[in-house]
Design brief:
Shape of chain B: elongated
Strand content of chain B: 5-15%
Largest sheet of chain A: none
Structural class of chain A: mainly alpha
Structural class of chain B: mainly alpha
Strand order of the largest sheet of chain B: 1-2-3
Oligomer: heterodimer
Strand content of chain A: under 5%
Helix content of chain A: over 70%
Order of helices and strands of chain B: HHHHHHEEEHH
Helix content of chain B: 40-55%
Radius of gyration of chain B: 31 Å
Order of helices and strands of chain A: HHHHHH
Chain lengths: ~180, ~210
């Protein structure tokens, strides 16, 4: 999983680098806080951090051979991810209507502002979605009692993916919304 | 999806689970503080570069903390730590290399007839953009109108019907250059088989004026 995460990190790195280069070259690029909602995204960041905490709690309970708490925290993690997706969907809808941002066009400035935003956050959102599905499958397996013996390697691996998703969002939030 | 074999499980037997959970909560508090600080920095009346630096440092700290404590990098071997750090190293390298290399527009092996033979540009000659070496291009590309350079076997044979060598072509380029520079290290001698079209191969030895055409 670490090897996959390294490759995934490089993919995100490439996307962010492309965004950086496009933004550097374009003097008409608007200030992000003019159009993007920082408050909502800051809350989304906080939510993903919380979901990382619940994930690591689930791992800890799993090692302690307490599958009921592990299941509870796994489901909480998946819930955090799902709420994050809901926030993203709301944000996309809001931006499309109020800021005129679509995948290929931006009414108030260079179209790359919108396209890079949607590509980077959309690619990340796809990771969140797959992560939620992955976590739900793991939760089902926990419920079936497959990890009652304390050998929770599979859960840890799922945790690695989820923490990676959180980590990437921390960086994406910084570069797209804050700078 | 490739799974690397995890080596983390054995380390936790020695730790009290309640303690580790308390540590996770402590890290969570730090993450919240760093998040609030990050967003706060944006609204401080500081110059943009300072704000950017503070924000990037805070976010890297957050990412590092998540990786080190939540992804259990702390308990992994130093090689895995290095593997995890690799994307950052590669990214820094790319970030330094990318913007720089995208500004490099010249190459002595990039045959651009409209730059070397200015009449070609005016007459709208098919600029046969070379991805192969100039020698190969010269042998198959039609000569642009205005100046006819006939090349055989990589050696210039005639220019506009008159017998000529690479030195003559270089001289023409220099003469048509906007700034006439001294031709001290000028035209390379027409070494056998070493005279690709446009005198591109002579770039290192021609004067600055000729270099402007490359």
């Amino acid at each position: 999983m670490w090897i996959f995460l390294v490759t995934d990190a490089l993919t995100f790195g490439g996307l962010l680098l492309g965004y950086a280069l496009l933004r550097m070259r374009n003097p008409d690029w608007p200030k992000p806080d003019q159009y993007l909602g920082i408050a909502l995204s800051a809350f989304a960041t906080f939510l993903l951090i919380c979901s990382s905490v619940t994930m690591v709690m689930a791992q800890s309970f799993g090692e302690e051979k307490r599958p009921k708490e592990m299941l509870k925290y796994l489901l909480l993690t998946a819930l955090g991810g799902a709420i994050f997706l809901g926030i993203q969907a709301y944000e996309y809808n809001h931006l499309a209507h109020s800021a005129g941002m679509s995948f290929a066009n931006f009414l108030h400035g260079p179209p790359q502002f919108a396209s890079t935003f949607f590509i980077v956050t959309g690619f990340h959102g796809f990771h969140v979605f797959s992560g939620v599905v992955y976590l739900l499958i793991m939760a089902a397996r926990v419920a079936m009692g497959k990890y009652n013996d304390g050998n929770i390697n599979h859960v840890e691996i799922a945790g690695l993916f989820w923490h990676f998703v959180d980590l990437v969002w921390i960086l994406v939030f910084t570069f797209i919304y804050l700078i | 999806m490739a799974h690397s074999s995890t080596t983390t499980s054995q380390a936790h037997h020695h730790h009290d689970p309640k303690e580790t959970r308390a540590e996770y909560i402590k890290i969570f508090k730090w993450l919240v503080i760093l998040t609030v600080a990050e967003v706060g920095f944006v609204f401080l009346p500081l110059p943009h570069l300072v704000v950017t630096l503070l924000v990037v440092v805070a976010s890297c700290a957050k990412a590092g903390v998540v990786g080190y404590y939540y992804m259990h990098l702390k308990q992994e071997t130093k090689w895995l730590k290095f593997v995890a750090l690799l994307p950052l190293i590669m990214f820094i390298y790319l970030a330094a290399l990318g913007p720089d290399s995208s500004q490099r527009h010249f190459s002595p092996y990039f045959f651009q007839p409209e730059r070397v033979l200015p009449e070609a540009a005016h007459h709208g000659a098919e600029a046969h953009v070379a991805t192969e070496t100039p020698k190969e291009v010269a042998e198959e590309a039609p000569a642009p109108t205005g100046n006819e350079v006939v090349i055989k076997d990589g050696k210039i044979v005639t220019i506009n019907g008159a017998a000529a060598t690479a030195a003559d072509l270089n001289k023409r380029v220099q003469d048509s250059a906007p700034t006439a520079a001294s031709s001290d290290t000028a035209t390379s001698t027409a070494a056998p088989g070493a005279a690709p079209a446009a005198g591109a191969d002579a770039a290192p030895t021609t004067s600055d004026a000729a270099n402007e055409w490359l």
